[in-house]
Amino acid sequence: MTIARTLDDACVALAEHPDALLLAGGTDLMVGVNRGQVGFDHVVVIDRVDELRGWRREGDELVLGAGLTYAEMGRGELPVLLPALAQAARTVGSPQIRNAGTLGGNLATSSPAGDTLPVLVALDATVVLRSSHGTRKLALDRFVTGVKQNALEPEELIEAVRVPVLDGPQEFLKVGTRNAMVISVASLALVVDRAGRSVRVGLGSVAPVPVRAVEAEAFVDGAIDWDTGSAPEAAVDRFAGLVAEAARPIDDQRGTATYRSHAIGVLARRALRRAFPGGAP
Amino acid sequence: MTDVRTEEPRTVQGAPRIGESAPRPDGIPKVNGSFAFSSDLWHDRMLWGGTLRSPHPSARIRSIDIGPAVAVTGIHAVLTSADVPGSPTYGLEHADQPVLASDVVRYEGEPVAIVAADHPDAVRLALDAIVVDYEVTMPLVDPGVAESSDPIHPDGNLIRRIHLRHGDQEVVGDVVVEGTYEVGMQDQAFLGPESGLAVPAEDGGVELFIATQWLHADRDQVAACLGLEPGLVRLTLAGVGGAFGAREDLSLHAHLCLLALHTRRPVKMVYSREESFHGHVHRHPARMWYRHHADRAGNLVRVEARLLLDGGAYASSSGAVIANATCFAAGPYRVPSADIEGVVVRTNNPPCGAMRGFGAVQVCIGHEAQMDRLAAALGMDPVELRLRNVLAPGDRLSTGQVITGTAPVAEVLRSCADHPSAASLPGDPMSLPGGAGRTADPAHVRRGEAIALGFKNLMFSEGFDDSSSAICRLEGGVATVTCACAEVGQGFVTLAQQITREVLGVDEVVLAPAATATMGSAGSTSASRQSWMSGGAVQAACEEVRVRLLARVADDRGVDPDELVLVEGRVVSLSGDFEADLASVTAEAIEAEVEFRHAPTSPLDENGQGDAHVSFAFSAHRAIVDVDRDLGLVKVVELTTSQDVGRLLNPLQAIGQIEGGAAQGVGLAVMEEVLVLDGRIRNASFTDYLVPTALDMPPVEIAALIEQPEPGAPFGAKGIGEPPCISSTAAVVAAIRAATDLDLTHVPVRPTDIALAGA
Fold first, then answer.
1. Which residue from A90, A172, A182 is facing B690, i.e. has the nearest CB?
2. How many whole angstroms separate alpha carbon B59 and alpha carbon B118?
């Protein structure tokens, strides 16, 4: 086991042990270890690496450290700068889990139900990957490649996530069969870029990877009255239908595909109405 | 045995008597993490045990090769059915369940082999190394065809059928309502997984430290499997992390003892959460058809019902569960005519058995939905309809039994219905349906309110010869009580001491550990029976000590014992001639052992008629819910309850039982279901088997605890553990119906049942 103190420590350890497990919050990893589903020869502990902690602003971008915890996403200025991320973080697990679990962990697990992923995909986030060979950047939709699969190479770790600071409302809604501490059955993030006059929608738990509702976005961008911030009811309906069409859900123990398609449409309608209350009947 | 930790010492601070809120001695240790649960048991020389389970719900075992497992470093034993020296099967009612499967496996997770090793990792490697050659067969998973299918067990697929017929079978009502209802499989979801420690003894016997509900029944079953005299199997209660019925059957008990006797080493085993879902019985899923007849004034005329429970692969306590379901199928109402058939069958689904409410929970969902349908058909207020039909003392049940004890059913219902609601309209988005997910649109949230009434029997029924024993020893003014009653959270630890203080006027009471070696049976901690049975045994033992004490002092002083009384730790003569300190007159110990029995009951006859039950307890719940109709999400806003308690012995504890039971009821109403597909559990984890969180559980408003002392019960107290989870589910489901105008016949109500209704 290596307890890394710096990013370089971690990269050196990973170069020596390319198949090592990275341990930060451990909220996903340890479940697999305890069930005997995750085998390992070496562990690199990265929760004490200061360079991975916290977040900073660089111009119009925010750089979110991979070690940013869910609890930290809901503290200080972040809920103002990234309301959808703070809302998503609040839906994760219990306070104990939110104190331990991290943004990097959510990305690395790449679960279709990862709660921050719809927000990040809606924000067109860039994932910053680091190894002893250097740094590379990947758009989020290129980073997550399948159910619990991603583009991380051996020796690589997630250093940070870069997202834009946008002027406009943001919403995150998540359906679960319990009012808290529940895995998502369907989730939706909607972010508005007023300057760019665009609406972006990320969907969770309704496809193998977090997806954008591209057609719905294109439609609604043109249907919104940007000067008054209002959306006609018919446009909201059409938008909800197009979002539902973007979903490719499955049946599993948490819900049926039919319910997920239905629910994601309801979430789309409600999120858009919250962002654009004007024009409601 | 000083190197074995079991429970924390049990003393109550202060000296609370009957009717006072005695704090639990194990309360703070459980909150701060210092309480030793059975999973914390430790022995310096111990091995770790593990269980190989069938991956198939139905298969023939062609062969088992343990060779590769024996070769694993650190392995001390690999045992199969061939190594079971005594009875190859066990069971609560019928010994139909193999200790280890030999030729056939009948459910997913059935134990096939057990191992012991010096490290948990070696256990895992050895379990992986055992080669079982299965011939997979088609599982029988539909209880509806179980009786007409080939038997999956030598005992056949019918576990029990009861056909109850009461009154005039030809009568028909002016108004008739019919309904079919389905209840899913609920898990007890206790926090402390199955765990224990077995230590081989020098006399050839074995000591078993175990979390259980009935030490002596376990002992007898384990001893039979081991081929030992019961006296050589000595059980001591270890710290229990919840039970709710799931610890009535054996789980790892016999396995641990087999491994310990085989290796001559202490062996510890702890189930994982996933294993726990396969390692204990669940609440029976039910399919229920009902037809209620009433006259135009709303008097019940006749109830017809067909109840089908899925017992899963083995009988467990299914026979008693279906008896309860059948006896209480019509609810706490006067029913002059009834035709109720209850059937429980065997399938290749997970075995089902005891869970809090024991058959009464499922039928309450049915009979209360029917009463609401009837009220709608009659155009009557649902509370008025119920009040018109509720049982009262002297009335007959559908079993023909006359209620001779207390039955304040109308009082329970009326007080609950009349209680003002404290529910406000939702403000905080977190308090809307969907909670932290922020899904609700307040304009689309609809509120519903409904009430439900339920009841069940206290204690075992159908002629069971039930007893509990207790010893009271008074020495130097200190009373020591010994009883084998398993404390599983119900609160016997405080009650035994409160009762002793009340009878003997002492302050200091020590409750000895519960063990089979020191005491006779206390019976099961189930059926809401321990306050009555073991409470009664303690009360009687203390009374006997009091009588002997007064006789001794009278003899010493040369007075009539009738001239003496025991007052606040002193023996006082009524004439005022003298008084003596209790400590001084008990320098020489006085001890009494009493075996306590309740009034006998009778079996049910071929028509399901008979005085089969001892006593009954009644409860009502009123639920207020908010529903997001579009997403099918529910927020239970408020639960109000009234309960028939006989007499309150420990108010704080009673409230705890009432709140906890209601939480299990809310869980069954809106989220708790073990999902079984083709005989396999799909959600064997707390990630996917959901139980209510603080955001799901509303405040429980207690409208009234009706105190009408029950004849024959110690201090008149009725058991209070089960009613809170009987009527709560029915009330919540009815409130969701009220909010949505949907029939909602499946419980738990799933989001899709609401959101996609009619789609």
1. A182
2. 31
Residues A160 and A175 both lie in one domain: no
| CA–CA min distance A194, chain B (Å) | 23
Is B723 or B12 the better-scoring residue by pLDDT? B723
What pLDDT, in 10s, does the model give residues B262-298?
A: 999 999 999 999 999 999 999 999 999 999 999 999 9
Q: What is the predicted pLDDT for the residue at A36?
A: 81
Q: Which fold has domain B286-461+604-755?
A: Aldehyde Oxidoreductase; domain 4 (3.30.365)
Q: Say which CATH number the domain at A91 has.
A: 3.30.465.10
Which residue bears the tokens 């099918």?
B632
Identify the domain containing residue A200 by its residue range.
Answer: 170-275
Tell me which chain A residue has its CA closest to the CA of residue B432. A179
Residues A93 and A231 placed together within one structural domain of the fold? no
CA-to-CA distance for B467 and B534, rounded, in angstroms?
8
Considering only the beta carbons, identify the residue of B437, B687, B756 that sits closest to A91.
B437
Query: What are B459-507's pLDDT values in tens digits?
Result: 999 999 999 999 999 999 999 999 999 999 999 999 999 999 999 999 9
Please state, as a whole number, how many other Cβ atoms lie within 10 Å of the Cβ of residue A251: 11
Q: Provide the β-strand partners of residue B746.
A: B182
CB A263 within 8 A of CB A188: no
Homologous superfamily (CATH) of B40-138+194-240+247-272 is Aldehyde oxidase/xanthine dehydrogenase, a/b hammerhead (3.90.1170.50)
Whole-Å CA distances, A120 to A56, A124, A144, A172, B421: 16, 6, 11, 11, 44
**DSSP state letter for A98:** H
| B678: contact with A, CB 8 A cutoff | no
Domain boundaries, chain B: 40-138+194-240+247-272, 286-461+604-755, 467-597
Residues of B in Cβ contact (< 8 Å) with A91: 436-438
B residues 579-638 closer than 8 Å to A (CB): 630-633, 635
- Contact flag B437-A179 (C-beta cutoff 8 Å): yes
CA–CA distance, B377 with B707 (Å, rounded to integer): 35
| Residue A34 banded pLDDT, cuts 50, 70, 90 | confident
Question: Which residue among B274, B439, B670 places its CB closest to the CB of A173?
Answer: B439
Would residue A269 count as lying in a domain? yes
Q: How confident is the model at residue B5 (pLDDT cuts 50, 70, 90)?
A: very low
Q: Which residues of A touch B732 (CB under 8 A)?
A: none
A187: Cβ contacts below 8 Å, ≥ 6 apart:
A88, A91, A113, A115, A118, A172, A173, A174, A175, A203, A204, A205, A267, B437
Distance from CA of B97 to the nearest CA of A (A): 28
Q: How many helices (H) and strands (E) does chain B have?
A: 16, 31
**CB-CB: which of B272, B690, B756 is closest to A178?**
B690
**How far out from the chain centre does Cα A250 lie?**
20
pLDDT digits (tens, 9 = 90+) for A146-184: 999 999 999 999 999 999 999 999 999 999 999 999 999
Same CATH fold assignment for domains B40-138+194-240+247-272 and B286-461+604-755: no
pLDDT in tens, A219-230: 999 999 999 999
* Burial group, residue A50, by CB count within 10 angstroms (0-12, 13-18, 19+): exposed
CA distance A280 to A272: 11
Cα(B545)–Cα(B550) distance, integer angstroms? 9
**CA nearest B124 in A: which residue?**
A36
Cβ burial, residue A58 (10 Å; 0-12/13-18/19+): exposed
- The confidence band for B13, taking pLDDT boundaries of 50, 70 and 90, is low
What are the start-end ranges of the H helices in B310-359? 318-327
Q: How far is CA B709 from CA B412, B424, B613, in A?
A: 15, 36, 18
